[in-house]
Design a protein that fits this description.
mainly alpha; 2 strands; about 40% helix; two-stranded antiparallel sheet; about 210 residues
Length: about 210
């Protein structure tokens, strides 16, 4: 059982929660950390399709109130894709996210389609970074910022910036990086020029997501 847990922040991706938990526990052995938290020796991580959720919940400190379904609903992108999938397919994706094997999630969601835009690096909003550091003492990766097609922050209407952190296909927990560690000092945000053609649609899409 874990001695501590990093409570998720509002809108935080589960991928980000995993990264902060790794930093909190500071387990010297990558394999040991993966076995303890995820139940497998060689865990694979992806911002679109986090896994191992049932095992994570089973190891949380006594008295916690977290449930696997709630973590999926509030901290993964599945609620965005669910309305466009059959109930059977959505259920199967949930079971894969909860279990020890993540293979097939991208295919079931439809993210394997060659025409779909991929977001290779984790993205962030400079204004969110400043706000979160002031309120929580650290910033974190927001799930809405990682959705393909979302180019601006729906709250601040500024263009998202791309970090150096890969968002997909991470082969080990040692490749999980927190936003606080990877995003430097405050940067000047680039505002979306709402008077320009198409700007309103770009912002509306982000807010709808």
């Amino acid at each position: 059982m874990l001695g501590a847990f990093t409570d998720p922040y509002p809108g935080e991706s589960l991928h980000s929660v995993y990264a902060r938990l790794r930093q909190l526990l500071q387990c010297p052995s990558r394999r040991e950390f993966s076995l303890q938290v995820f139940g497998v020796a060689d865990s694979v991580h992806d911002v679109d399709s986090p896994g191992y959720i049932d095992h994570l919940v089973s190891t949380l400190p006594a008295g916690h109130s977290y449930k696997s379904e709630e973590l999926i609903d509030w901290h993964t992108p599945l609620p965005l894709y669910g309305p466009f999938l059959t109930q059977a397919r959505t259920h199967k994706i949930r079971m894969l996210m909860r279990g020890p094997k993540r293979q097939g999630i991208h295919f079931l969601i439809g993210l394997r389609h060659r025409s779909l835009e991929k977001v290779p690096q984790l993205r962030y909003c400079p204004r969110c970074v400043v706000s979160h550091r002031a309120e929580y003492g650290e910033c974190y990766w927001l799930r809405v910022h990682q959705v393909p097609g979302v180019l601006v922050c729906p709250q601040h209407a500024v263009w998202l910036k791309e970090s150096d952190v890969p968002a997909r296909g991470l082969r080990s927990c040692s490749e999980l990086y927190t936003a606080q560690a990877m995003i430097g000092a405050a940067q000047v945000p680039q505002l979306l020029a709402l008077k320009e053609e198409g700007a309103g649609a770009i912002l509306q899409l982000a807010q709808d997501v």
